[in-house]
Amino acid sequence: MSTPQVKDTVSTRVDIALLGIRVNAPVQRTGGAGPSDDGHLLFEGMSAAIPINQTSPYSVTNGRLLLDGADLGLDVTPVKRPRFYDLETADGISYEKIAKLHGSNVLATTVVQSCMRYGEADRCRFCSIEESLTNGLTIEVKTPAMIAEVAEAAYRLDGVTQLIMTTGTSKGRDRGATHLARCVKAVKTVVPELEIQVQCEPPANLSTITDLYDAGARSIGIHVESMDDDVRAKWMPGKSTVSLDEYRAAWREAVRVFGHNQVSTYLLVGMGEDPDEMVAGAQELIDMGVYPFVVPFRPLKGTLATDVDHAPPPTSAVLHDITSRVATALQLAGMHGSDQKAGCAACGACSVLKTAGA
């Protein structure tokens, strides 16, 4: 494949990440703690989480991506509805309310669907963690036994190969990591082959990071969203009280425990950060052995940025520029998301980085 074609493919992937797509996607996600309100597709064989938008100029017909009816020569197919969605626990809870399929082979769950920072004054403006709970799409606390039961079924019936477990932040010093560790242990007991990523804020006691590894997790996401303190204060007033120095200490400890390129963090494009400074922040993370998972901010129903101040997504030019430069930096460092044992970078569906070669 020639370089111009690669660039065209990346540009198209950027466009559909922002403009969405017209397609019938059996696997969708609404609300939640991360990028959502999307359908799950395979874009040129790679997992892609794309907004379903009936006004988009992009559509899918017979497995091909069309722009205003013109075939772009790219294969796009919806992910099939998994069989484990048809099951429920003995007490009548749908498996789909306990964990969701992401992409074609990733199981994901928010083990506690509430957050101490979800009050109006502290809330992260891009987050809708409690909206899916309010709408009855999930349950607040998933027990280790529940998650293990669903993970076994997803592994056996649908070929799931990895599991992502995140959590709303608790008031304890562990910030929710202790419950995560219990859930990891339960899953590994039932499905030892399943690779697991855990996601949490930096715990006050850094030894908790070792507890998560000892429980059986093999990658970890400690998500900062921005390396700019002004952006953090504006977009995540509660979470920004955890200083960047605390994040840096947690990332370094996580790299020591989990290994180089087994630690990741989200960086959201479109919150007003200077592109050069954002790329510089990504380079600092890469130098630490942390994978900066670059994702566009997308206005989501139930978030302050959408409902209150109507913040727009980034432009395609800005997203393309930052993604391309970070992808080049990752390539130079020999870091690829596919080399992570499990998690968002390994899946890659919410970002354009994998399409760009990282």
What does this structure look like?
By secondary structure, this protein is α/β, with parallel strands linked by helices. It has a single domain (80-347), classed as Aldolase class I (TIM Barrel), CATH 3.20.20. It is built from eleven helices and 13 strands. It has a seven-stranded mixed beta sheet with strand order 7-8-9-10-11-12-13. Strands 1, 2, 3, 4, 5 and 6 form a six-stranded antiparallel beta sheet that branches. A hairpin with a 2-residue loop joins strand 5 and strand 6. The radius of gyration is 19 Å and the shape is globular.
Structure summary:
The chain is of the alpha/beta class. The chain has a single domain, classed as TIM Barrel, CATH 3.20.20.
Overall mean pLDDT score?
Answer: 92
Top CATH class = Alpha Beta
- In whole angstroms, how far apart are the ends? 16 Å
Number of domains: 1
CATH superfamily: Aldolase class I
Main sheet: strand order: 7-8-9-10-11-12-13
Percent of residues in helices comes to 25-40%
Category by helix and strand content? alpha/beta
Counted by DSSP, the helix tally is: 11
Unreliable spans: 1-7
The CATH topology, please? Answer: TIM Barrel
The CATH architecture:
Alpha-Beta Barrel
Radius of gyration: 19 Å
Number of strands: 13
Largest sheet: 7 strands, mixed
Following the backbone from N to C, one meets helices and strands in this order, namely HEEEEEEEEHHEHEHEHHEHEHHH
| Global shape | globular
How large a portion of the residues is in β-strands, by DSSP E?
15-25%
